[in-house]
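thought: fold this chain, then report.
action: predict
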Amino acid sequence: ERRRHNRQKVMDFVQYRLVGGSTVDSADDLSEGGVFLSCDNPLPLRTKLEVLLPDPDGGPPLAVPGEVVRVAWGGRQNDRATPMGMAVAFDEEASPHVQRRLEALLKKRG
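observation:
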């Protein structure tokens, strides 16, 4: 794997918002670069959304803009089971405030 950011297993529920509504699904992996969401109905590739990450200390959730970059439909990939869901890459142009909060949130989960 060629990843720029270390991933953390999280197994936590996160909410994501689209124009016209929001959905809650389970996050499996989380990093500074994005999140993998397990879900029955993945969104189409390149769909823009906002992921709301819960603060482990009970503060307000962190809203991070992102885009669907991969959809997994289950089965096996590279000799390992792949959960059904979608990979969301966080917007690298997110505000410095959002980036700092994301880094702090990952350290708390650490």
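thought: worth noting. Strands lie at 8-18, 21-31, 34-38, 48-53, 62-72, 76-77, 80-81, 85-90.
final: tokens above.
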